[in-house]
Design a protein that fits this description.
mainly alpha, single chain, 2 domains, flat, 9 helices
Protein backbone atom coordinates (compact mmCIF):
# COMPACT_ATOMS: atom_id res chain seq x y z
CA UNK A 1 0.00 0.00 0.00
CA UNK A 2 1.37 3.43 -0.92
CA UNK A 3 1.99 5.88 1.88
CA UNK A 4 -0.73 8.48 2.12
CA UNK A 5 0.13 12.05 3.00
CA UNK A 6 -1.78 14.35 5.34
CA UNK A 7 -2.47 16.83 2.51
CA UNK A 8 -3.98 14.03 0.40
CA UNK A 9 -6.29 13.08 3.27
CA UNK A 10 -7.47 16.70 3.64
CA UNK A 11 -7.96 17.12 -0.12
CA UNK A 12 -10.03 13.94 -0.34
CA UNK A 13 -11.99 14.93 2.77
CA UNK A 14 -12.88 18.29 1.19
CA UNK A 15 -13.92 16.56 -2.03
CA UNK A 16 -16.08 14.21 0.04
CA UNK A 17 -17.58 17.22 1.84
CA UNK A 18 -18.53 18.78 -1.50
CA UNK A 19 -20.18 15.56 -2.62
CA UNK A 20 -22.11 14.50 0.48
CA UNK A 21 -22.24 17.49 2.86
CA UNK A 22 -20.84 17.92 6.34
CA UNK A 23 -23.31 15.64 8.11
CA UNK A 24 -22.36 12.70 5.89
CA UNK A 25 -18.57 13.11 6.11
CA UNK A 26 -17.24 10.18 8.12
CA UNK A 27 -13.82 8.74 8.76
CA UNK A 28 -15.14 5.40 7.53
CA UNK A 29 -16.28 6.92 4.22
CA UNK A 30 -13.06 8.86 3.86
CA UNK A 31 -10.92 5.76 4.49
CA UNK A 32 -12.92 3.83 1.90
CA UNK A 33 -12.49 6.68 -0.58
CA UNK A 34 -8.73 6.69 0.04
CA UNK A 35 -8.49 2.90 -0.22
CA UNK A 36 -7.10 2.52 3.28
CA UNK A 37 -8.24 1.06 6.57
CA UNK A 38 -9.97 3.54 8.90
CA UNK A 39 -7.31 3.28 11.67
CA UNK A 40 -4.72 4.53 9.15
CA UNK A 41 -6.37 7.96 9.31
CA UNK A 42 -5.40 8.23 12.96
CA UNK A 43 -1.77 8.40 11.91
CA UNK A 44 -2.55 11.89 10.59
CA UNK A 45 -5.55 12.92 12.71
CA UNK A 46 -6.17 11.71 16.23
CA UNK A 47 -9.86 12.61 16.11
CA UNK A 48 -12.51 13.57 13.60
CA UNK A 49 -12.47 17.02 15.20
CA UNK A 50 -8.78 17.34 14.26
CA UNK A 51 -9.62 16.31 10.69
CA UNK A 52 -12.45 18.87 10.49
CA UNK A 53 -10.14 21.61 11.79
CA UNK A 54 -7.56 20.75 9.11
CA UNK A 55 -10.31 20.76 6.48
CA UNK A 56 -11.54 24.17 7.66
CA UNK A 57 -8.01 25.56 7.53
CA UNK A 58 -7.42 24.20 4.02
CA UNK A 59 -10.79 25.45 2.81
CA UNK A 60 -9.80 28.99 3.85
CA UNK A 61 -6.64 28.98 1.71
CA UNK A 62 -8.12 31.21 -1.04
CA UNK A 63 -8.92 33.93 1.52
CA UNK A 64 -5.65 33.43 3.38
CA UNK A 65 -3.67 34.21 0.23
CA UNK A 66 -5.45 37.46 -0.59
CA UNK A 67 -3.14 40.50 -0.57
CA UNK A 68 -2.76 42.23 2.77
CA UNK A 69 -3.61 45.93 3.06
CA UNK A 70 -0.82 48.46 2.65
CA UNK A 71 -0.37 52.01 3.87
CA UNK A 72 -2.38 54.34 1.70
CA UNK A 73 -5.21 51.86 1.07
CA UNK A 74 -8.63 53.19 2.00
CA UNK A 75 -9.65 51.19 5.06
CA UNK A 76 -13.32 51.12 3.97
CA UNK A 77 -12.52 49.66 0.55
CA UNK A 78 -10.11 47.15 2.06
CA UNK A 79 -12.56 46.14 4.82
CA UNK A 80 -15.35 45.55 2.30
CA UNK A 81 -13.13 43.53 -0.04
CA UNK A 82 -11.64 41.49 2.82
CA UNK A 83 -15.13 40.60 4.01
CA UNK A 84 -16.29 39.77 0.48
CA UNK A 85 -13.24 37.53 0.01
CA UNK A 86 -14.14 35.69 3.21
CA UNK A 87 -17.70 35.18 1.92
CA UNK A 88 -16.53 33.96 -1.49
CA UNK A 89 -14.19 31.48 0.16
CA UNK A 90 -16.89 30.09 2.45
CA UNK A 91 -19.19 29.68 -0.55
CA UNK A 92 -16.59 27.66 -2.45
CA UNK A 93 -17.34 24.58 -0.34
CA UNK A 94 -20.58 22.84 0.38
CA UNK A 95 -21.38 23.60 4.02
CA UNK A 96 -18.37 25.93 4.07
CA UNK A 97 -19.88 28.15 6.76
CA UNK A 98 -20.72 25.18 8.99
CA UNK A 99 -17.23 23.75 8.51
CA UNK A 100 -15.65 27.09 9.46
CA UNK A 101 -17.97 28.01 12.34
CA UNK A 102 -16.31 27.66 15.71
CA UNK A 103 -12.79 27.34 14.36
CA UNK A 104 -9.99 29.34 15.91
CA UNK A 105 -7.29 30.87 13.75
CA UNK A 106 -4.04 29.11 14.53
CA UNK A 107 -1.66 29.63 11.64
CA UNK A 108 -2.76 32.98 10.22
CA UNK A 109 -2.25 35.08 13.34
CA UNK A 110 0.38 37.24 11.65
CA UNK A 111 -2.10 38.11 8.89
CA UNK A 112 -4.75 39.00 11.46
CA UNK A 113 -2.26 41.18 13.35
CA UNK A 114 -1.33 42.93 10.10
CA UNK A 115 -4.99 43.62 9.30
CA UNK A 116 -5.60 44.95 12.80
CA UNK A 117 -2.51 47.17 12.65
CA UNK A 118 -3.69 48.53 9.29
CA UNK A 119 -7.12 49.45 10.68
CA UNK A 120 -5.58 51.09 13.75
CA UNK A 121 -3.09 53.01 11.60
CA UNK A 122 -6.05 54.14 9.50
CA UNK A 123 -7.58 55.76 12.58
CA UNK A 124 -9.92 53.02 13.74
CA UNK A 125 -9.73 52.78 17.55
CA UNK A 126 -8.21 49.44 18.57
CA UNK A 127 -11.28 48.07 20.35
CA UNK A 128 -13.52 49.16 17.47
CA UNK A 129 -11.16 47.49 14.98
CA UNK A 130 -11.36 44.24 16.98
CA UNK A 131 -15.14 44.38 17.21
CA UNK A 132 -15.53 45.34 13.54
CA UNK A 133 -13.43 42.37 12.43
CA UNK A 134 -15.33 40.05 14.78
CA UNK A 135 -18.70 41.44 13.70
CA UNK A 136 -17.86 41.19 10.00
CA UNK A 137 -16.63 37.62 10.44
CA UNK A 138 -19.69 36.47 12.32
CA UNK A 139 -22.03 38.35 10.00
CA UNK A 140 -20.37 36.68 7.02
CA UNK A 141 -20.50 33.18 8.50
CA UNK A 142 -24.17 33.69 9.42
CA UNK A 143 -25.02 35.07 5.99
CA UNK A 144 -23.32 32.18 4.21
CA UNK A 145 -24.88 29.68 6.60
CA UNK A 146 -28.35 30.99 5.68
CA UNK A 147 -27.46 31.10 1.98
CA UNK A 148 -26.17 27.54 2.00
CA UNK A 149 -29.21 26.37 3.99
CA UNK A 150 -31.43 27.75 1.22
CA UNK A 151 -30.01 25.21 -1.20
CA UNK A 152 -30.40 21.48 -1.18
CA UNK A 153 -28.14 19.48 -3.43
CA UNK A 154 -27.25 22.64 -5.34
CA UNK A 155 -30.84 23.57 -6.13
CA UNK A 156 -32.54 26.60 -4.62
CA UNK A 157 -35.66 25.98 -2.63
CA UNK A 158 -38.66 28.21 -3.17
CA UNK A 159 -39.88 30.25 -0.21
CA UNK A 160 -43.43 29.72 1.04
CA UNK A 161 -46.18 31.77 -0.58
CA UNK A 162 -46.12 35.37 0.57
CA UNK A 163 -42.47 35.26 1.69
CA UNK A 164 -40.25 37.34 -0.58
CA UNK A 165 -37.21 35.76 -2.21
CA UNK A 166 -33.97 36.88 -0.60
CA UNK A 167 -31.17 37.96 -2.89
CA UNK A 168 -28.33 36.79 -0.67
CA UNK A 169 -25.64 38.86 -2.32
CA UNK A 170 -27.65 42.09 -2.10
CA UNK A 171 -28.56 41.36 1.52
CA UNK A 172 -24.91 40.68 2.31
CA UNK A 173 -23.79 43.92 0.67
CA UNK A 174 -26.44 45.90 2.56
CA UNK A 175 -25.36 44.41 5.89
CA UNK A 176 -21.70 45.00 5.09
CA UNK A 177 -22.46 48.65 4.34
CA UNK A 178 -24.22 48.97 7.69
CA UNK A 179 -21.11 47.67 9.46
CA UNK A 180 -18.77 50.04 7.59
CA UNK A 181 -21.16 53.00 7.92
CA UNK A 182 -21.50 52.35 11.65
CA UNK A 183 -17.73 52.24 12.09
CA UNK A 184 -16.92 55.31 9.98
CA UNK A 185 -17.92 58.01 12.53
CA UNK A 186 -15.61 56.40 15.11
CA UNK A 187 -12.52 56.78 12.94
CA UNK A 188 -10.11 59.57 13.86
CA UNK A 189 -8.18 61.51 11.25
Amino acid sequence: MAKIHREDVVTEALDLLDEVGLDAVSTRGLAKRLGIEQPSLYWHFRTKKDLLAAMAHAAMAPHATEPLPVAGDDWRDWFRENTRSFRRTLLMRRDGARLHAGTTPATDLDRIRHKMAFLIASGVPERDAQMAMLTAGRFTVGSVLEEQADTTGGESTDPPAGVPHIDHESAFEAGLSLIVDGLTPRVTA
